[in-house]
Amino acid sequence: MQKAFFIVLEGIDGSGTTTHTKLLGEFLKKKGFKVHLTREPSSSMIGKLLKEALLDDTIPPETDALLFAADRTLHYKMEIKKKLDESFIVISDRYLESSIVYQSSQSNDVSVDWIEDINKFVGYPDITIILDLPPEISLERKRAHLETTGENSEKFETIEFLKRVRKKFLNRAKKKNYIVINSEEKIDRVQEEIQNYVKKI
Ligand code: TYD
């Protein structure tokens, strides 16, 4: 029988987490696995509130952190845990590392310890993959996407902020032994690397 497995893709805005979550899901489904794809902010009412908070830079970073933790707790308990109990492979487009890295980059008053503490009711992923590229390139990709969809740019989508976020992702990867994949390459190449890593594990 298939064993449950929890995979998370992380990275700065425009690093391709959404695209690669979908492609990895398709790949694993084709191999015959039961796969559940999900994302954060989630589709819950707190996730919807978060989507609004992402457009409002007057909201205190502490409130952002608490909302993301509340959304994640609901998401984990109501959806992720249930799917894992049913032996699905769950793949999430962003999860806990986004909170640790983004919210601690917003303010010196928001510590990693505190973020871990308010997120202590959720389970940890089996695999965390960090997609890495320079913010100059990721924001260029984001801009093209916004032009075609007509969506508004969010408050974290600036080069200076994303430079801090990128550095923190890379430091966390070293500390926690997460794999870092260069996302500057063509989509197929990046996806191949992700698949090879997941197959190995
Ligand atoms: P979204 O529009 O889903 O971004 P993308 O498609 O680029 O991944 O918005 C998610 C934004 O929220 C993104 O800037 C990362 C940020 N974020 C946090 O700051 N903390 C978190 O815990 C999570 C999950 C996301």
Overview of this protein structure:
This protein is α/β, with parallel strands linked by helices. It is built from 8 helices and 5 strands, in the order βαβααβααβααβα. The longest helix has 25 residues, at 61-85. The site of thymidine-5'-diphosphate (TYD) has 14 residues, from helix 1 and helix 4.
Strand % is 5-15%
CATH level 3 topology? Rossmann fold
End-to-end C-alpha gap: 17 Å
- Strands of the widest sheet, in order across it, are 2-3-1-4-5
CATH architecture: 3-Layer(aba) Sandwich
Catalogue the unreliable spans. none
Q: Which small-molecule ligands are present, each listed once?
A: thymidine-5'-diphosphate
Characteristic terms for this protein:
201 residues; Rossmann fold; 8 helices; 5 strands; globular; binds thymidine-5'-diphosphate
Task: Please specify the SSE layout and strand pairing.
Blueprint: E1 5-11, H1 17-30, E2 35-39, H2 45-53, H3 61-85, E3 89-93, H4 96-106, H5 112-118, E4 127-132, H6 135-149, H7 159-176, E5 179-182, H8 187-200
Parallel strand pairs: 1-3, 1-4, 2-3, 4-5
Helix pairs in contact: 1-8, 2-3, 3-4, 4-7
Bound molecules: thymidine-5'-diphosphate.
